[in-house]
Design goal:
Layout (H helix, E strand, L loop, with lengths): L1 H16 L23 H15 L5 H4 L7 H11 L13 H6 L4 H20 E12 L13 E5 L17 H13 L3 E7 L2 E9 L3 E3 L4 E5 L3 E9 L8 H15 L4 E7 L3 H10 L3 E11 L2 E8 L2 E3 L2 E4 L1
């Protein structure tokens, strides 16, 4: 019964996020790609992202880079695997003499509480995160960038800050505004999608030395390459393909400025961006960064081709 319910909910999710609400019949056993349902790469990314969001799961990497072999039933199996039906907990019988020595129900609960506290302490003390280094050769044909009616691309400047009042969440608005101003003062390029006078998406790229505080890295570039980062969409305009269109536009803009390559750094769990970047934007994975955080202080190590290092990363 649970399998059938998941299968039907996935079909409804597919119709909503990738088939424009169509009520056409969907065979759960046939391919979702061009030889079956006919989803293109963008629609596939949107569907996989919706699955992760709705079912609170993390899809394996191989599902993000495959298309023709995937079907609705593929994801039914994955959801069943990651979200097993809740089992009835066995009844624990505690001898009366142990109960007599216990301080009530909290005695048993304290063990779980200590275990949970221990995990939190360990996570705050030490954990590792991983990022992929991507690069795009700008001398080869680039994907088309187009926007629906009412939207436009343009480079923005300091005078546009007034249009960013509600662009970021309230909790980070002051900090982000300061970063925005500081970056523009150093001639870092900020491109935007506009809806009238309203900024609804921004993307940055630069040939300047970049300090990645979260990674503990200093990124330097040779004159013919640039580094793209911090793509962000307004909360009210997400899931409309604006970020994807802006990313494509940024690549073209960088090429027009004379750059030969554009690099990017993407978190290993940002499957949507990894899939979009490699499948749609033509970027290639060329290296990785592993960051060990000890008491929140980052200690990075990176590999790029045959090169490796720690604090200083050079893109060429």
């Amino acid at each position: 019964m649970r399998r059938a319910e998941i299968q039907q909910s996935l079909i409804e999710l597919l119709r909503t996020c990738a088939l424009s609400g169509s009520d056409r019949p969907v065979d759960p056993t046939i391919s979702l790609g061009g030889l079956g349902i006919g989803l293109d790469s963008l629609a596939m990314v949107q569907f996989l992202t919706a699955i992760e969001s709705n079912y609170k799961i993390e899809l394996p990497d191989d599902l993000w880079v495959t298309r023709e072999s995937l079907s609705i039933d593929t994801f039914v199996e994955e959801i069943l695997h990651q979200t097993p039906a809740p089992a009835v907990a066995p009844q624990v019988v505690i001898p009366q003499r142990e109960l007599a020595n216990a301080d009530g129900p909290s005695a048993l609960g304290s063990i779980g509480q200590l275990s949970s506290l221990g995990r939190k302490v360990i996570n705050q003390t030490y954990h590792k995160i991983k990022f992929h280094i991507l690069v795009r050769d700008l001398s080869t044909p680039l994907p088309e960038s187009s926007l629906k009616h009412g939207f436009s691309f343009r480079r923005i400047n300091a005078s546009d800050q007034v249009n960013l009042e509600n662009f970021w969440l309230k909790e980070v608005r002051e900090y982000k505004s300061q970063v925005f101003k500081k970056r523009l003062e150093t001639d870092i390029v900020c491109l935007a999608v506009m809806n009238g006078d309203r900024v609804v998406a921004i993307d940055w790229f630069s040939n300047h030395r970049a300090i990645e505080t979260e990674l503990g890295l200093v990124v330097e570039m040779t004159p013919e390459v640039c580094y793209g980062y911090d793509l962000h969409e307004h909360p009210d305009y997400q899931s409309q393909g604006l970020g994807l269109a802006l990313l494509s536009y940024t690549l073209k803009y960088a090429r027009e400025m004379g750059y030969r390559k554009q690099y990017a750094i993407v978190h290993e769990h940002n499957h949507k961006m990894l899939s979009v970047s490699t499948q749609l934007m033509g970027m290639k994975r060329v290296g990785e960064i592993e960051v060990a955080r000890v008491f929140k202080r980052p200690f990075p190590s990176w590999k790029l081709g045959e090169l490796s290092g720690t604090r200083l990363l050079n893109f060429s």
